[in-house]
What does this fold into?
Amino acid sequence: MPGFESLIVITAGAMLSLGMLAGIAAWCWKGWLELKRAELGNGRPAVNPAVSGRIDVADLKERVKKLEAIAAGVDY
It folds into this structure.
């Protein structure tokens, strides 16, 4: 059975490791929150709305063509 001193050393090492991990986790959390604040505070949308709208319209036109082909019985 290990001695009393070795148990104290093991316990102290475990507590120190746990404290270091908690500190690193808190530091990472703070960085992630700053990143999200920067993203939200930017004020600009990620994609230009005009481009996004054109993509949506093109996608809808393609879907309509497919549905019309299905309705006409054409293998699309």
About this structure: The longest helix spans residues 4-41. The chain has two helices and no strands. Residues 46-76 form one domain. The chain has a mean pLDDT of 85.
